[in-house]
Amino acid sequence: MKFILGCPHSTRIVNMQSELDLPPLVERIYANVTYISVKCLHSPYLAPHFSAVIRTSLDPDAPILLLRPGGHNLINAVCNNIRGLDITVPEEAAIPGLQSWRVPLPIVTFTPTSKDVPPLLQK
User: Does the reported pTM lie above 0.70?
Assistant: First the structure.
């Protein structure tokens, strides 16, 4: 970013991110993990255990799963993002013999939360 903008080394990262209209790194990581989680929810055979954990954790009445502390944080962040986006992810029937990198992207529907500029994860 410093090279692109021609900024001195003392320039704050936050200022460069706002100038380039880039999201913070943490939001980008959450967006990527949420995207992968939606893909796994759509095609549970890609990561069966992860899909089951996410699906169970999305249910507010489900018991708390036994996970490591870092796992709880990740699952909570992903489930909060999916709930916050108000998306419905249909589960696909298993397609035998299809490589994971050739799985088609799921069609996901969501309800916009506001009429202003949509949040980063909705983009």
Answer: no
